[in-house]
């Protein structure tokens, strides 16, 4: 009923009610309700993709089938995904300036209503393309002979699948939710409004960038970026390690703990040098190849080892700290 009420207004210009009238206030409210309803429908569409594909069914990752999708893959990363990101940023530009939005909401909500059909169309195209390229679940990469498959290495498909159907989908849903809250608050008196904002926009843009990297980014960037958490964890472990040798609190460390800490210093130092080198980006402006000679199995091994190594370094330092408090811990480390 709401959709029908504003159908004529949406498809063509109409005479707006005079400002500061009851009719104008009612019109603003109807605009807001329609925008919210559409965001809710987009979110529902996002989580119930129009697909007959069983998500648990394994994807056919044969190179012949995948290479037949090269054109839509190119269209996806070169045109469609940037366009979808642009539509979201257009909405964010309208709803992000809360002062102007609350000062004169009608034209801004009207702009949101104008963007929403394009947002729906592009989002739907993205869903259909990813279902075409990856019609199911991608298994953990184990291929040892796909180093020349370029965009269609199973490692890249595995990462793309997890990114789009995981992180990106959740970030989009969060953006829709934040947008609804901002519009809903326009109905409240100023004194009762909670200062909501589109805090999800930054993480959404980051998810778009990550998706584009899986689609057409250099593997020399993908791998270091995956190691960022481990790099931060290793540097944190390095800092805690030296705090153990020279406590900032002034409380002395036991001699047994110091001896243990000194015995693993070469490991700590080598790890820091390795991660420092790994975190260096290629020289800006210098051409970077999109692909490496590594197979999916090797790339995934690096991926997994990054997670395990960061945890191992923190665990090691934790046990060193334990050995200072509980001397019997030293035996397990030795």
Annotation keywords:
single chain; 334 residues; mainly alpha; A middle domain of Talin 1; 0% strand; disordered N terminus; disordered C terminus
**Strand element count:** 0
According to CATH, what is the topology of the largest domain? A middle domain of Talin 1
Supply the CATH architecture of the largest domain: Up-down Bundle
Rounded Rg: 26 Å
The overall pLDDT average reads 80
Portion in strands: under 5%
Number of helices: 15
Give the helices and strands, then pairings.
Layout: H1 2-5, H2 7-11, H3 22-47, H4 63-67, H5 70-96, H6 98-103, H7 105-133, H8 154-185, H9 200-216, H10 219-226, H11 228-245, H12 255-263, H13 265-278, H14 296-325, H15 329-333
Helix pairs in contact: 3-7, 3-8, 5-7, 5-9, 8-9, 11-13, 11-14, 12-14
Structure characterization notes:
The protein is an all-alpha fold and 334 residues long. It has two domains: 24-217, A middle domain of Talin 1, CATH 1.20.1420; 226-281 and 288-325, no CATH class. Helix content is 70%, strand content 0%. The chain is built from 15 helices and no strands. It has helices at residues 2-5, 7-11, 22-47, 63-67, 70-96, 98-103, 105-133, 154-185, 200-216, 219-226, 228-245, 255-263, 265-278, 296-325, 329-333. Helix 5 runs antiparallel to helix 9 and helix 12 runs antiparallel to helix 14 (296-325). It is flat, with a radius of gyration of 26 Å. Residues 1-16 and 330-334 have low confidence and may be disordered.
């Amino acid at each position: 009923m709401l959709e029908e009420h504003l159908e004529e207004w949406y498809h063509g210009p109409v005479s707006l009610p005079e400002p500061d009238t009851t009719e104008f206030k009612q019109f603003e409210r109807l605009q807001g309700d329609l925008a919210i309803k559409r965001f809710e429908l987009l979110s529902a569409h996002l989580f119930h993709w129009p697909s007959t594909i069983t998500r648990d069914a394994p994807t056919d990752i044969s190179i012949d089938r995948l290479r037949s999708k090269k054109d839509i893959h190119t269209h996806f990363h070169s045109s469609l995904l940037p366009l979808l990101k642009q539509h979201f940023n257009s909405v964010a530009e309208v709803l992000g300036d809360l002062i102007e939005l609350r000062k004169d909401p009608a034209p801004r909500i009207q702009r949101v209503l104008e963007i929403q059909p394009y947002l729906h169309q592009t989002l739907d195209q993205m869903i259909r393309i990813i279902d075409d390229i990856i019609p199911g679940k991608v298994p953990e990469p184990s291929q040892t002979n796909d180093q020349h498959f370029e965009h269609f290495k199973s490692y890249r498909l595995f990462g793309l699948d997890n990114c789009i159907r995981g992180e990106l989908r959740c970030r989009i849903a969060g953006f829709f939710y934040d947008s609804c809250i901002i519009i809903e608050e326009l109905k409240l008196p100023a004194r009762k409004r909670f200062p909501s904002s589109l805090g999800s926009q930054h993480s959404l843009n980051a998810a778009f960038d990550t998706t584009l990297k899986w689609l057409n980014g250099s593997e020399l960037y993908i791998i270091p970026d995956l190691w960022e958490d481990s790099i931060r964890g290793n540097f944190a472990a390095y800092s805690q390690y030296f705090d153990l040798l020279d406590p900032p609190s002034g409380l002395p460390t036991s001699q047994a703990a110091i001896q243990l800490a000194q015995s693993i210093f070469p490991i700590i130092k080598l790890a820091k040098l390795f991660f420092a080198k790994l975190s260096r980006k290629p020289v800006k402006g210098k051409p970077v190849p999109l692909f490496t000679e590594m197979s999916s199995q090797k790339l995934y091994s690096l991926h997994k080892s990054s997670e395990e190594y960061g945890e191992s370094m923190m665990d090691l330092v934790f046990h060193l700290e334990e050995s200072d408090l509980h001397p019997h811990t030293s035996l397990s480390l030795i």
